[in-house]
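Running this now, will post back.
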Amino acid sequence: MFGRLLSTKRLLLLTLVGLCVTSLLPTTTAWWIGDWPRDRIQDGLHKTFLVAGLNRFAAMLRPPAIHEAEAARDLATLYDEERVYSAQLRARVAEQEQRIQLLSGTNAVLRLTGYSRVSVRVTDTDLAVAIVDAGAGAGVATGQCVVAGDALVGTVGNVTSVTASVHLATAEGAQLRVELVPSEPGSPSRRHEVVAIYGHAEDMYVVELGGQQEVEVGDVARLVDPRFPDEAHGFVIGRVQGVEADPSDPLMFRIVRITPAARIAAGRHVIILVPTP
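Update: finished.
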């Protein structure tokens, strides 16, 4: 009689339903299964429902380990995204700080009226010429002064509507007339006008100075070259790194080596001084 009331399929179904309810109840509620590990029951039911094609029910009974693994992966993904975003944010902040530094140079020339400061980005460069991402459309013209803070970068050469070339002050063999002055305003007054010659081999300007002319490490070399536009005068070419006796005539001359103030690379921002109408 009992077999007629409950067929084998119905008995199996009721058993599965009971196990499902048991696996979903709190552990303290499922007192009647004794020491059976509920995780195993859930895992078994999960696999059974997957085989039967009942995916929605299988998803309800995934073992806790699966949930924990997915949560760990989600958390790791969030950490990775946060690190990438933080790196991008730091890069943008650094770029803006560089632009602010360029636009707020301490050289008095930058504070003169009559010039607008066009911030441009160097897109390519070699040993003599750099290419920037602004041209005639931004008011850029041949001969204008290009600076980075207080440092002279060079002058504008060929110009298109959207780009311009810059003849670098650090081109091989470049000869610039500069004045050597103390770096500190309160230092003893001394000024020597000399010609500085740049060489890529040492990545320095070299000056031959008379033995009686006083110069110290740290002194500043400022442009006074009449071949450059007036607004370029006073910008820094570099700083004295070393002074030594001239091997060819150590009693009469000394060799002064000057480290360039502007080192240009692709991606860096510079300023073009554009006369205002």
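The longest helix spans residues 64-103. More later if anyone needs it.
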